[in-house]
Design goal:
Length: 122
């Protein structure tokens, strides 16, 4: 299903090596829209990672931050054991509220190894 959605590409500086990397995948908004969630719905997305990490992001923030569900890193599919297989992520370098934070603080709302998205009414 994800491969059928239009892919976006972002190029944030990542904390693990302080270098810019290309991440590509569909927008998080298009993923939840494919599941039947209206674009302007007042909902919160609970994003869960394989390791148990979980974060709540409003759909409005996901849209404003242009979050994607990355499936590739530098053109290569992400695998389990690294950042994949999926990563809900934004381009922190280009978002005013994140760009000046230390690298280790920029991606708190971006669970790597994403496996589950729960949609709840705000």
């Amino acid at each position: 299903m994800l491969a059928r959605l239009p892919a976006l590409t972002i190029q944030p500086t990542l904390e693990y090596d302080a270098k810019a990397h290309r991440l590509a995948g569909p927008s998080l908004a298009s993923v939840v829209a494919a599941a039947g969630v209206a674009a302007a719905a007042p909902v919160v997305l609970h994003l869960r990672a394989i390791d148990g990490y979980s974060v709540a992001v409003s759909l409005a923030d996901a849209n404003r931050w242009r979050m994607i569900v990355a499936t590739t890193l530098d053109g290569v599919p992400m695998s389990i054991g690294g950042l994949g297989p999926l990563w809900a992520v934004y381009d922190a370098d280009r978002i005013a509220e994140f760009k000046d934070l230390p690298l280790k603080e920029r991606f708190a709302a971006c669970p790597w190894a994403l496996y589950f998205i729960e949609v709840k009414t705000a």
